[in-house]
Amino acid sequence: xxxxxxxxxxxxxxxxxxxxxxxxxxxxxxxxxxxxxxxxxxxxxxxxxxxxxxxxxxxxxxxxxxxxxxxxxxxxxxxxxxxxxxxxxxxxxxxxxxxxxxxxxxxxxxxxxxxxxxxxxxxxxxxxxxxxxxxxxxxxxxxxxxxxxxxxxxxxxxxxxxxxxxxxxxxxxxxxxxxxxxxxxxxxxxxxxxxxxxxxxxxxxxxxxxxxxxxxxxxxxxxxxxxxxxxxxxxxxxxxxxxxxxxxxxxxxxxxxxxxxxxxxxxxxxxxxxxxxxxxxxxxxxxxxxxxxxxxxxxxxxxxxxxxxxxxxxxxxxxxxxxxxxxxxxxxxxxxxxxxxxxxxxxxxxxxxxxxxxxxxxxxxxxxxxxxxxxxxxxxxxxxxxxxxxx
Length: 391
Prior knowledge:
Layout: E1 2-8, H1 12-23, E2 28-31, H2 36-41, E3 47-48, H3 50-58, H4 63-68, E4 70-72, E5 74-79, E6 82-87, H5 88-92, E7 97-99, H6 102-116, E8 120-121, E9 124-130, E10 138-143, E11 146-157, E12 175-190, E13 199-203, E14 209-215, E15 218-226, H7 236-247, E16 260-274, E17 277-278, E18 281-283, E19 289-290, H8 298-319, H9 323-326, H10 328-350, H11 358-373, H12 375-386
Parallel strand pairs: 1-2, 1-11, 2-8, 5-13, 11-18
Antiparallel strand pairs: 3-7, 4-7, 5-6, 9-10, 10-11, 12-15, 12-16, 13-14, 14-15, 16-19, 17-18
Helix pairs in contact: 1-6, 1-8, 8-10, 11-12
């Protein structure tokens, strides 16, 4: 097999890239190790920045998102039993975010790819990226019980942290920056309407809590828990009781309870691999960087990576200049590091670290009070949350 762009991974990044390339008249092949059903039910992110939503619309993949997604014009910060709403459009010139689950983004892009795009091979396991430093890279993969080779002009690794793409970059050329946090998120899905119409980020002396949603009828909620927690060690009533404590306010707001249908624990870490390019191999999304979920940046960073690559490849084809492709890693990393900074700030602002002192507790409250009382500080949060520019 031969194609212009070999894409490893059919998550939102790989699928969006295939769509962008198709719209630009550039052929590609997508290799995905899992089956279609798995990809379409893989629970991950649910917040789309303004720029990500705009890209999906421009790519022809925004119709169902606009019909079924939930536009959010702000978030609520909760601390010391007080409530403060951050108004995104008022602070950013009209920008907002969209609550639309990654599973739904993937369903929309898969349907478009199978109907209009190039080959999308499920249960096609990428085994290695070979000759990445040359003009003729190749992906060795296994599909339908036999090994095959996909010859490419370019390879884009959208295959996550455990994928093979990053391993093709020589270790002597790389730098890794990472931080592991001593806590995680116990997340639940519950069949109950959300208790608030926007996301609520709560800082409490017992730990962080987040009220989110997947639809008008399904709530998504999180509790800060120690790293390594077994989700099944928490009973349903125990989870709801703890959520009530951490979301407590001085007014008459209350948390609605309902049947819990899923419990998971998400570890918290920050990770950046530099560079994001080696020869004709380009890394995108979790293959190159991971952020703690506090800032809602993971999927959006991946979208920014593939938009940057697609624009650069189109530029080369139209002008003959490799300038934007050569700048891919630098361009992406500027945005990645701003997202890492914001996610770290939000994580340290809202989570109580094990062994935190009274001094550190008061600093957190002072930072939150600064956001609530300063338009400049509030604007900085709103601009970062709604998204850094692509490219």
